[in-house]
Amino acid sequence: MLMSSSMDHAGPSVLRWLLSVAAGGLFALFLLVASPVPFPSASLFLAPTSPASSASRRSQLPLFVDPALSAQARAPPAAPASPPRFAYLISGSKGDAGMLRRCLLALYHPRNHYILHLDAEAPDSDRAALAAFVAAHPVLAAARNVRVVEKANLVTYRGPTMVTTTLHAAAAFLWGEGRGKGADWDWFINLSASDYPLVTQDDMMEVFSELPRDLNFLDHTSDIGWKAFARAMPVIIDPALYMKKKGDLFWIPQKRELPTAFKLFTGSAWMVLSRPFVEYLIWGWDNLPRTVLMYYANFISSPEGYFHTVACNADEFRNTTVNHDLHYIAWDNPPMQHPHLLTLGDWDGMLASAAPFARKFRRDDPVLDRIDADLLSRAPGMLAPGGWCVGEVPAAGGNRTGSDDPCKAVGDAAHVRPGPGAARLKRLVTSLLSEENFRPKQCKVAVVEEHVSAKKVEEHIPSKNVEEHH
């Protein structure tokens, strides 16, 4: 009642106020219609989003459901504060234990990490002796950075089991000693017992410390030529994937088409891979690594194609490839299935290549003794010295005996003392990263023949990429 009487009493004044508001609104509308400045249309708010803005918004979306993983994936890499570290897989087979041990001593550095794998053809006694050697060595045991694979993998020549062994080691390096706390390392390098270094680890660290840590050294090409018919189209089965004893590969009579979901690349089985790429291979967050792995499970000589195909088909990594395997490998003329065994006669060629590694060496060939003496300053049975050694390290080529081991204990492991090998390696890397060699040779897609006749394959002389992996 009180409210009703108040409204009745104020009726005339309220009516006058409403009329004034209405008149003002009509006048404002008249001004807007008569104005030469156009009124913003609704299309301003409903305009289709440009592809660029869509891509920008997508880039801001989390890569993972877990916010912690998304933040980690988007976080820029921290600036390197110390020399890089390398994770080495050194593999061998029956009769390779001695060469594998020698290769380890020549490659050793307390900052690095090492996995030694003797495949299932080697007797258990060889693995036990190798593990005992590591456990008894004062430096290796104290650093705890060398692991011997106890449960050996069965590896078939030219089969996919070499790929699974490499991925096994890569996963072990990422996992570390358990709970996913992997060791600190920057590049993964796979070698065999018949490989040997031509530079010291200090030389490697000196040169690689100046490089972006996402580079992947992969000798690769998409010009597969005769390999399309001889390797990509045949379907093979590797018994080592499911049998306890090694057997020959067997072939399926039918052939398959070349893949269209990804482009095939081939190259050397020896690589230097960045940690980001290794993580991508193991985690495979966009599933390409797993898809390609399934394809290469039935591919002849899959170690010479799997890693290359993944890298060159992944947008994130195709621009990180350097087209070289950092190896010196000599081939007969005409080239045979296996590379030429290196001897003292290949000395000049090895040095001229400036490569940090060479293969293939015969067990305890005299050329290895010269490499130890002239390039590594390594005495027989001792570790290759470096800036980390407590004692005084002789210059390359200096005489050393078993009584003057400067590396009985570890000093400053981050202290790098490069030698002449660093200058050679830097010359090679500078050439590989030059304007002429780097971008133009990255994952280049070649135009190849769609059909390769069987006659051409039979007439073809095996190229240098046809090689055993031990």
Annotate the secondary structure layout.
Blueprint: H1 2-9, H2 11-34, H3 43-46, H4 51-60, H5 67-74, E1 86-92, H6 97-107, E2 113-118, H7 124-136, H8 138-143, E3 146-148, H9 161-175, E4 187-192, E5 196-197, H10 201-208, E6 216-217, E7 220-221, H11 227-232, E8 235-237, E9 250-252, E10 266-267, E11 272-274, H12 275-283, H13 288-296, H14 306-313, E12 321-322, E13 327-328, H15 347-353, E14 357-358, H16 366-376, H17 420-432, H18 454-459
Parallel strand pairs: 1-2, 1-4, 2-3, 6-12, 13-14
Antiparallel strand pairs: 4-11, 5-14, 7-10, 8-9
Name its key features.
18 helices; glycosyltransferase; alpha/beta; membrane; transferase; five-stranded mixed beta sheet; Glyco_trans_14; 470 residues; glycoprotein; Spore Coat Polysaccharide Biosynthesis Protein SpsA, Chain A
What does this structure look like?
It is a single chain. α9 (161-175) crosses α12 (275-283) and α10 runs parallel beside α17 (420-432). The strands form 5 sheets. A 5-stranded mixed β-sheet has the order 3-2-1-4-11, with helices on both faces. Strands 5-14-13 form a 3-stranded mixed β-sheet. α15 (347-353) links the parallel β13 (327-328) and β14 (357-358). It is globular and about 65 Å long. The protein has helices at 2-9, 11-34, 43-46, 51-60, 67-74, 97-107, 124-136, 138-143, 161-175, 201-208, 227-232, 275-283, 288-296, 306-313, 347-353, 366-376, 420-432, 454-459, and strands at residues 86-92, 113-118, 146-148, 187-192, 196-197, 216-217, 220-221, 235-237, 250-252, 266-267, 272-274, 321-322, 327-328, 357-358. The chain has a single domain, classed as Spore Coat Polysaccharide Biosynthesis Protein SpsA, Chain A. By secondary structure, the protein is of the alpha/beta class.
